[in-house]
Amino acid sequence: MNRSILFALACLSAATWTLSAQAQPASGGPPPPPSAGGPPAAVVPWPVTMVTSVEVLRSERAGGLDIIRVRGLVSSPSWGSPHLIPITQGEPVDGILDLIFQGTVPTTPAPLGPFMPFEALLPVDKGHPYKGVRVRSGTNAITLKTLPGYAETAAPKEDCAKCRGKIFVAKGAQPPAGAAATSVVREADLPWNLRVIKPTDGLPNYAFDPNRLTLVLSEDGRIVDAAWD
Questions:
Q1: Average of pLDDT values for 74-100?
Q2: Mean pLDDT in the chain?
């Protein structure tokens, strides 16, 4: 993580107190190395796929220092460098410190797989004016209104790790008669930015988004290919 950038943003957030971030490595390990003989993949910062919990711990030994601990999920093990970016400038009117939970990710599609846990810490010096913390991801936000304290949200029902070959059921539609529950993927269980490509669809533009799930369907509505891109 670029600590100088984070420090500059923190100074905008509070002129008389200091915010500094500490990143924890992704539980899924470091990003895979580039293919042999090719240039390294470009890496960009991006809001994580989902934030699942926000916790504020108060250390009396450190003179009342508050430590914000945020956990979330990312779409693949290629994510790295988890960090929290403050977007609040000055003393907030509502007393809430607003943060974005980000990581870095290669600008190439990632294959399907189980979500990976992600975690970051942000110490906040004693004397800060904040009464609560809001953390935003690419798809949701969690607000903690009591410091110290803890808030969480339920993990998603479907990460689409085993989507290929299953029948896609759009919102409001019903699965084919006799289809087993384990053989279908319901759009309602996919709370992500979703792009569905049918056999007759064109693709007018392509912009990379590691939090967007792309599903390619066959003529009978089955998922024949998918990726986070």
A1: 95
A2: 84
